[in-house]
Amino acid sequence: MDNDSGARPVPDAHLPAGLRTPVLPDAFAAPDEAKIAAIAGHFEAIMRELGLDLADDSLAGTPRRVAKMYVQEWFRGLNPANRPDVKLFENRYEYHQLLVERDITLFSCCEHHFVPIIGKAHVAYLPAGHVVGLSKLNRVVQHYARRPQVQERLTRQVAEELKQSLGTPDVAVLIEADHLCVMSRGVNDTSSSTLTSEYGGRFAADAALRTEFLRQIGK
Ligand SMILES: Nc1nc2c(ncn2[C@@H]2O[C@H](COP(=O)(O)OP(=O)(O)OP(=O)(O)O)[C@@H](O)[C@H]2O)c(=O)[nH]1
Ligand SMILES: [Zn+2]
């Protein structure tokens, strides 16, 4: 997508309103470099407020490092220009059984505390006329993970994106994740983890299919 044209892509415009990450419509009007410079300035102010000496050679580059990390890595999924192009191939081989992409690495960020969410995503679909390039399943997970999140919305965004791009409602998503906000602060519980799931089409209707999916991901 062209991020320099007058008509800028609206974040998550293709998702139902309730599933959109709350992002201002003009959030991506400025180029990434301007955003990085502005965030670095704000982060420097936070560090100063914490009492840190920015003259220290280890700390001096931190504001810009953090800003780059936010814009280019952790939160790159906020920018609709980074939405993956999900390539489909004709299903000439007539594969119509369950396809499971399991143990997809998941790094996200808790939108309440801005600390990591770390886990695995498992996605599955029943191919109809087309099959998807496998890596695109990982890319869809990453696109929605790389933004401030709650796990429930992330799960439903991934499912909805897959339904739309694969052209079938027969999609399953299960995410298991550790929330650093639960582990490292607050209740300080390092053993609990959070599982969320979304089942569409035949996965919602057919308990045996769900069981088979869960068996294949080792649940
Ligand atoms: N539903 C949901 N809650 C989340 C997620 N990530 C973090 N939270 C919770 O968001 C809640 C925010 O609650 P608050 O009471 O405003 O924040 P807090 O005072 O820091 O709460 P504690 O974590 O209990 O100390 C906490 O209970 C978090 O555990 C998520 O992905 N989904
Ligand atoms: Zn949190």
TrEMBL record:
EC number: 3.5.4.16
Keywords: GTP-binding, Hydrolase, Metal-binding, Nucleotide-binding, One-carbon metabolism, Zinc
Annotated metabolic or biological route of this protein: Cofactor biosynthesis; 7,8-dihydroneopterin triphosphate biosynthesis; 7,8-dihydroneopterin triphosphate from GTP: step 1/1
Cited SUPFAM superfamilies: Tetrahydrobiopterin biosynthesis enzymes-like (SSF55620)
Chain residues that bind Zn(2+): C110, H113, C181
An example molecular function term from Gene Ontology annotations: GTP cyclohydrolase I activity
Domain of life: Bacteria
All residue ranges annotated as the GTP cyclohydrolase I domain in the record: 40-217
Catalyses which reaction(s): GTP + H2O = 7,8-dihydroneopterin 3'-triphosphate + formate + H(+)
Top enzyme class: hydrolase
Record flagged with keyword Plastid: no
Record family assignment: Belongs to the GTP cyclohydrolase I family.
NCBIfam families found in the cross-reference section: folE, PRK09347.1-1, PRK09347.1-2, PRK09347.1-3
Assembly: Homopolymer.
PANTHER family, sorted: GTP CYCLOHYDROLASE 1, GTP CYCLOHYDROLASE I
Protein name listed in UniProt: GTP cyclohydrolase 1
Species whose genome carries this gene: Hymenobacter caeli
